[in-house]
Amino acid sequence: MIIESPTWRKVTARLLLSFHFCASMRISGANSILVNDIVEEDTYWKITISKTDQFREGAAEFLTKTIVLDEDVRTRLIAEPQSSILDNGKGAK
């Protein structure tokens, strides 16, 4: 018997793996990404991270667009701007 996971869990897992593997982020760093930290450009996604540097400018990670990543990120970008990108829409991660 195969137990099917809810769609939001699959999306969260794929995003977490993408951030961890492609952007070399720790899980805590991926958990702290907010919806308004992600900007879509023509060929990549820009993810603004930590603004704790000396000039409060922060840094950015860039991920090349792929069909699955684009689809997953876009489903999460409709959430509240201050919510985590890994939320399920109800506040759970």
Give the arrangement of secondary structure elements:
Blueprint: H1 7-22, H2 27-31, E1 38-40, E2 44-49, E3 59-64, H3 67-76
Antiparallel strand pairs: 1-2, 2-3
Protein name: ACT domain-containing protein
Organism: Nippostrongylus brasiliensis
Describe this structure in words.
With 93 residues, the protein is an alpha+beta fold. It has one domain (7-76). It has three helices and three strands. The protein has helices at residues 7-22, 27-31, 67-76; strands at 38-40, 44-49, 59-64. The protein has a three-stranded antiparallel β-sheet with strand order 1-2-3, with no helix packed on it.
Q: Tell me the number of strands.
A: 3
**Coarse structural class:** alpha+beta
Fraction in beta strands: 15-25%
- Unreliable spans are none
Question: What profile does the largest beta sheet have?
Answer: 3 strands, antiparallel
Molecular shape: globular
Q: Mean of residue pLDDT?
A: 82
Order of helices and strands: HHEEEH
Percentage of helical residues? Answer: 25-40%
Based on CA atoms alone, the radius of gyration comes out at: 14 Å
Number of domains: 1
Count of discrete alpha- or pi-helical segments spanning 4 or more residues: 3
Distance between the termini: 26 Å
Strand order of the largest sheet: 1-2-3
Protein name: ACT domain-containing protein
